Amino acid sequence: MPRRKAADRAGQVKTRSRSGCRECRASRVRCDAQRPICTRCREKGLPCSTNLVLKWESEFVSRGMAFGRTGVWSKNRSDSSPSSTATSAGSSPGSSVDDTRQWCSLPGVESWAFINTGMASFEDRRRFDVNLNRQRAIDPRIKSRAKVMPVGAWNLGPSSAPSAFPGRLGLENPELFDYFFRQLCPRATASPSSSSPFASVVLPFSTSATPTLFKAIEALSACHWAQRDPKYSTVGLRLKTETLRDLRRRLASQELVKSYTDPEILLIMMMLCLYEIMDKCDERWTVHLKGAKDLIRLRRERVGTPSDPVTRLAERFFAFQDVMGRTACGEAIVFGNDYWSSRDQKIDLWMGCSTELAGILSMITEMSRARRLSGSIQTTPLFLSRAASLQRQLEHLVQEVEGGDDNILSCVAEAKRLAALLYLHCALHGAAPSTAVVVDYVHQILCLVSSLLDFGSMANVMWPIFVAGVELDPSRDELYLESDGPGVSGRSVILRALDAMADSSISNVSRTRGVIIEVWQARDQDLLKPPKSEVNDWDRYVAPVSSSMSLA
């Protein structure tokens, strides 16, 4: 008996089920789409699967087949319907596609690209702690712009030149000491054209030092070298362990007065502190910070202000690490404001700013901490008066380059001054990324960062990049770095700068990048939520994820 035509059938015409299982589709049988297993598969004992199958149009075109239902045929087609016209024998199956369709070009994905994923990414922040310090190809745009950088200053490996210290005291790993001299010392200054304090202070002192200091220096070199060659990771860990063992024995065996007056002990602690910062940048580096503070306090109480350059360098190193790290998390102060001179406007080569700026930052952090602990202090006249006074100091602060002009050093110092103003408005006045003054300061800082990228020098700008990164408005990410130039993504500028910094600084770029990305994700997640005006923006997004950070 012939089948009835569609026009003679009673009731609704049955069509294909788009949610049917693969087994029913393969057998060309209608699936009732029951879950978790359809009726036919249950009765026949078949594995009912509804996995998504991806089909590519190019593959169908190459086989001469129609791709999906793109106007090739239809069950209820009529001869007058344009969409039901069958493809002629001589035409391509894809010719029915609308010729006016335009395909968007895929954007280029760089090594520093940021992709905000789903909710699962907020559960484990470590998955975004991408280690930028590992070996990778250098961005040719950054490499080609290294105009003023000395040849060989930022090489990725040890120099092939003859050792500068042949047979020095019978060192077990002389190549590590050479690595410190050739690779780490140039990275310890904010400008490659300026002299390094490590080279001018540490190296001369080490000529008469004990083997323990050499082990500390070699451990630091091995930790930094392991970022490109993992085999040095074990060497660095062994040398660090031996240094800690020798230091404990030394402190336990000698008199206390000899411990706090010996500059070599502070220098050993300084190298161990840098090792922990470059390795993990967790709370372990703060152990050396607090231990050094006890020795420095005893020396200042019983001897006074140090006069030798090694002790002065070590004191400034630890005090500056304390100041910059506390700006992120607002923890209790370790080194007080008496380590900074309010009248010294000269830019320190290692700090990249003046001691006056460091003292102002310390006072801002203390006021922010007092505001957070008390809650109501923010509206008192005394608090507002002190905040306004610090703001005026920063606005009129002059930072001088000692011994001539240095555009890179001046640019770094100015970026830190602007970042200090941005930090003041956020930490003391509760400003948010959408606040006009924050948008303006972020734009100015990123313009300076872009200039430093053009110079090819990104040492000692970790803190300005961090402050601008965590306060970047996600809804106004596009920046115009040039008056007549195209707009660029602010996030791409920050990530590209961090990528370049991994090759030109002694710091843990990975930890900083991980915190910035976590703040970006939290802000993106809260874009559609009403703002919580009673919560300080810095306390809500930055401080909870910034414990034990090193931003010096």
From TrEMBL:
<dbReference type="GO" id="GO:0005634">
    <property type="term" value="C:nucleus"/>
</dbReference>
<dbReference type="InterPro" id="IPR001138">
    <property type="entry name" value="Zn2Cys6_DnaBD"/>
</dbReference>
<dbReference type="GO" id="GO:0008270">
    <property type="term" value="F:zinc ion binding"/>
</dbReference>
<feature type="compositionally biased region" description="Low complexity">
    <location>
        <begin position="80"/>
        <end position="96"/>
    </location>
</feature>
<dbReference type="GO" id="GO:0000976">
    <property type="term" value="F:transcription cis-regulatory region binding"/>
</dbReference>
<feature type="domain" description="Zn(2)-C6 fungal-type">
    <location>
        <begin position="20"/>
        <end position="50"/>
    </location>
</feature>
<dbReference type="InterPro" id="IPR036864">
    <property type="entry name" value="Zn2-C6_fun-type_DNA-bd_sf"/>
</dbReference>
<dbReference type="GO" id="GO:0000981">
    <property type="term" value="F:DNA-binding transcription factor activity, RNA polymerase II-specific"/>
</dbReference>
<keyword id="KW-0804">Transcription</keyword>
<keyword id="KW-0238">DNA-binding</keyword>
<dbReference type="Pfam" id="PF00172">
    <property type="entry name" value="Zn_clus"/>
</dbReference>
<dbReference type="GO" id="GO:0045944">
    <property type="term" value="P:positive regulation of transcription by RNA polymerase II"/>
</dbReference>
<keyword id="KW-0805">Transcription regulation</keyword>
<dbReference type="InterPro" id="IPR021858">
    <property type="entry name" value="Fun_TF"/>
</dbReference>
<feature type="region of interest" description="Disordered">
    <location>
        <begin position="71"/>
        <end position="99"/>
    </location>
</feature>
<dbReference type="Pfam" id="PF11951">
    <property type="entry name" value="Fungal_trans_2"/>
</dbReference>
<keyword id="KW-0539">Nucleus</keyword>
<protein>
    <recommendedName>
        <fullName>Zn(2)-C6 fungal-type domain-containing protein</fullName>
    </recommendedName>
</protein>
